[in-house]
Amino acid sequence: QVQLVESGGGLVQPGGSLRLSCAASGSIFSINAMTWYRQPPGKGREFVAAITSAGTTSSADSVKGRFAFSRNNANNTVYLQIHSLKPDDTAVYYCNANVYGLRGGSWGTWTYWGQGTQVTVSS
């Protein structure tokens, strides 16, 4: 099994920055991609940004030009920094990992979700 733990959320003033982290642990051989989603109040979950094991990144138009990825491969942690935060960025942010690892006694590619971290942008 694999566990994902997000952290770094909180209350930020408009124009500020936040760095979210997603740490993966457990029976991992490799992480193929990590993706961030968010769910604004009263709305559905939406794609934010993603990074592959090769370092290729993609993002939603809503955060394009305002985000940066970094990672620590030694402890399977990915960091997403978002700049110039707006009230529309208020949401619960979820980490999703596509992992090659061991689950139920079988090696394979599995998808896992973290528990979410709240980001509130308000003055």
Structure characterization notes:
The chain is mostly beta strands and 123 residues long. It is built from no helices and 11 strands. It has strands spanning 2-7, 10-12, 18-26, 28-39, 46-52, 57-59, 67-72, 77-82, 91-103, 106-113, 117-121. The strands form 2 sheets. Strands 2, 4, 5, 6, 9, 10 and 11 form a 7-stranded mixed β-sheet that branches. Strands 1-3-8-7 form a 4-stranded antiparallel β-sheet, with no helix packed on it. The N and C termini lie far apart (40 Å).
Helix and strand topology:
Elements (H helix, E strand, L loop, with lengths): L1 E6 L2 E3 L5 E9 L1 E12 L6 E7 L4 E3 L7 E6 L4 E6 L8 E13 L2 E8 L3 E5 L2
Parallel strand pairs: 2-11
Antiparallel strand pairs: 1-3, 3-8, 4-5, 4-9, 5-6, 7-8, 9-10, 9-11
